[in-house]
């Protein structure tokens, strides 16, 4: 699943390399997210609803990150050309399936 906001950040020339650098670096991603939320607090973002209390604590990431079965780097829209894209393994098995989205 791709969030449109994440996709736009990953493709923007100002943020693509930073976004790419967080692949396989969970600690960096968590630190960057925490810093961004702290900035939002000090910038007067008071119209947002804090849902922290209802979000479950995720399981610890044991890594490394992998592509789903049948996927590879050729399926990634890489926007950062200043650094090499990380080499990721692909999970063995059948291609994942997603139920069709009903028309609205």
From TrEMBL:
Transmembrane segments: none annotated. It comes from the Eukaryota. GO terms for molecular function: heme binding; peroxidase activity. Keywords: Calcium, Disulfide bond, Hydrogen peroxide, Oxidoreductase, Peroxidase. Pfam families: Peroxidase_ext. Gene3D superfamilies: Peroxidase, domain 2. Disulfide bonds join 17-80. Residues 28-103 form the Fungal ligninase C-terminal domain. One of its GO terms (biological process) is response to oxidative stress. This is Heme peroxidase. It comes from Pholiota conissans.
């Amino acid at each position: 699943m791709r969030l449109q906001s994440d996709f736009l950040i990953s493709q923007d020339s100002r943020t693509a390399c930073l976004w790419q650098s967080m692949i396989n670096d969970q600690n960096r991603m968590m630190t960057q997210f925490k810093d961004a939320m702290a900035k939002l607090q000090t910038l007067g973002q008071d119209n947002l609803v804090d849902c922290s209390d209802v979000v479950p604590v995720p399981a610890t990431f044991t890594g490394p990150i992998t592509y789903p079965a049948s996927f590879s780097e050729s399926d990634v829209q890489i926007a950062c050309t200043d650094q090499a894209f990380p080499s990721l393994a692909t999970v063995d098995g059948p291609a994942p399936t997603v139920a069709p989205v009903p028309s609205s």
